[in-house]
Amino acid sequence: MSEINRAVKGTGDVLPSDSYKWQFVEGKMLETARLFGFNEIRIPVFEHTEVFLRSVGDTTDVVQKEMYTFDDKGGRSITLRPEFTAGVIRSAIEKGLVNGALPVKAAYVGGCYRYEKPQAGRLREFHQFGVECIGAAEPNADAEVIALAGQVLDSVGIEKISLEINSIGCPECRKDYVAALKEYFKSHIDELCDTCKDRLERNPMRILDCKSPVCSEIAKGAPVVTDYLCDDCREHFGEVQKHLTAAGIKFTVNPHIVRGLDYYTRTVFEFVSGDIGAQSTVCGGGRYDGLISQMGGPQVPSLGFAMGIERIMLLLEAQGTKLPQNNSCDIYIAAMGKTASLKATQLVADLRKDGFKAQTDICGRGLKAQMKYADKIGAAFSIVLGDNEIESGKAVLKNMKNGDKWEIDLNNLSDSLFKALNSSALDELADSVLKQQ
């Protein structure tokens, strides 16, 4: 197969036969977010490169190695978004949301782009769901955002997942911690990778997030940030834990979580799973109280999270979770001859206006091939139109699943189909209940 007929490395297709899974998952995510007061925001897929340089941090892998950056025809440096938070905050500043009624609660679903080695659950074009809560400083805001993430995962059917939390402090109490990290890693400087040697002076916390096995092993013995928290950050973290407990949310404190982006402060968290190999983090997030002012806005505290939809789909597959599939075709009208084909066109047009998923032949197939196709696409019911049916105004409605048939009036096809679909749904529900007993 020629290169032009292959997807670009690190990208993938969602085929019509699988798109219902994505639609279900994304729908559940946004639906659950609305329960917490988060409504969808849609932002451009690219931003001025400076948006990400100022927010994500120039010592992160994302900025140093992974961004898709190019000059547009006007000579401006543009970057495809590697994550959503920076773009959402840019929008909130530009549109004045940070000066309005707070908190602003925004949710999003969409694609992101990072140039990294493709592997299961980690693509160069990937999709995220996430939220940003702008203008909330209290510990119960942290607990609410974490609760939302957990409820989203539960709503799509994720099982056996655990919550790990940490506090990485504020810029003030982090000074002593950074000094301790520098002292520790300097004793291992000959063993560190070249990237981490550069990070040692600029941002030693990034070493804790290095993917190198050698650096990761060294990092295990590094000082932990919770030993260096100031009184305010320690109190905030304690209150977060109390609110999580009050909400009935189980968690583990993991002092090694730092997250991969520079804008985080205080609370950080991850939901992890053991069912998808190395890519165990399904959702991650935290607080970023200084990001808005760092990007030129007022001093407004904020927090959020993001989860990779590809990883969610992998996890659902690993669990063997069966997602509900909407019937793609309520009725297929097979036609024999040109007159019948015209009548079928009229009938499916009327049915679609009434909200039914109706199809008829558009490939010039014979009757046998039409019925075979109706079966392949999972049509719930079918009718066959010929000269006799058109003349009499009557046709036979067939249940494609169990073969039941009954005569219906073509002039009242919508009513007949509505009753048939409801009757079929009740039968399926009864069967389901019997199987559970």
Notable characteristics:
20% strand, disordered C terminus, 2 domains, single chain, elongated, Rossmann fold, 437 residues, BirA Bifunctional Protein, domain 2, five-stranded mixed β-sheet
Residue windows where pLDDT falls under 50 for at least 5 positions: 432-437
Structural class: alpha+beta
Counting DSSP H or I runs of 4 or more residues, the number of helices is 15
On the 0-100 scale, what is the average pLDDT? 91
Distance between the termini: 52 Å
The CATH superfamily name of the largest domain is Bira Bifunctional Protein, Domain 2
Numbering strands along the chain, what is their spatial order in the largest sheet?
1-5-6-11-10-9-7-8
Q: Quickly name the level 1 CATH class of the largest domain.
A: Alpha Beta
Q: Count up the domains.
A: 2
Q: β content, as a range?
A: 15-25%
Which value, in Å, is the CA radius of gyration? 28 Å
CATH architecture of the largest domain: 2-Layer Sandwich
Shape: elongated
CATH T-level topology of the largest domain: BirA Bifunctional Protein, domain 2
Task: Give the biggest sheet.
Answer: 8 strands, mixed
Total DSSP E strands: 16
Q: What share of residues is helical?
A: 40-55%
